Amino acid sequence: MKKALTIAGSDSSGGAGIQADLKTFMAFGVYGMSAITALTAQNTTGVQGIADISPDFVREQIRSVMTDIGTDAAKTGMLSNSAIVKAVAEAVREFRIPNLVVDPVMIAKSGAPLLAPEARKALVEELLPLATVITPNVFEAEAILGRRIDGLDAMKKAARELKNTGCQWVILKGGHLDIESQAIDVLCDGRELIIFRSPRLESMCTHGSGCTFASAITAGLAKGLTPPDAAKRAKDYVTEAIRKGFSMGSGHGPTNHLAGVSSKW
Known about the structure:
single chain, alpha/beta, 9 strands, 36% helix
């Protein structure tokens, strides 16, 4: 069985973070492991509290996994502060972790900050250059680039600029933009652009959709897919997971991680 490691925060409501990642890994038939970076008191309406894990212990969790089981791919999610970002980057280099997917998580869907502003520089300089794929949404790309992204042409330009951070591939998620009533993502490797389109779904069941998308790409890479193929499978998977999401709580409900699961995954 192929293996995947998630390095991310815990979501007590189970819809995002490592809980979403591990559910997604299992749905794709990949053995999931985790290194927890932060604990959150969280539900469908927002984040009520955050407790960061010490950088040394984050690194110790990664060391435990890598010196025994190893991994075929890994992803990062919520890293909270610059010390954790640097600890994770050091571990990626030390253990030569392959097929790294970096989801530059900065702000929760509720608006709660999940990455300290001073940590953005460390993320861009220390971690993005190590990534096989980075998966920013429009808001995260705007924070990294320092300007607004307001349409498909701007997304294409931003994807090319984000490639200059040193990563191998960028997939810029456009689900927050209403472009021709579609959810459009742009994949770029510095030479070509690939556009992924899906119907824009009017759904409140989107909690954890970004985590789910990035972990689906990670699972695909672990199983030997190319980044474009992994991204296409992930796009199809998360679209169906949103379409068949759960109406739980009074805010943004979780996606359905078992929706559309079949032997092809």
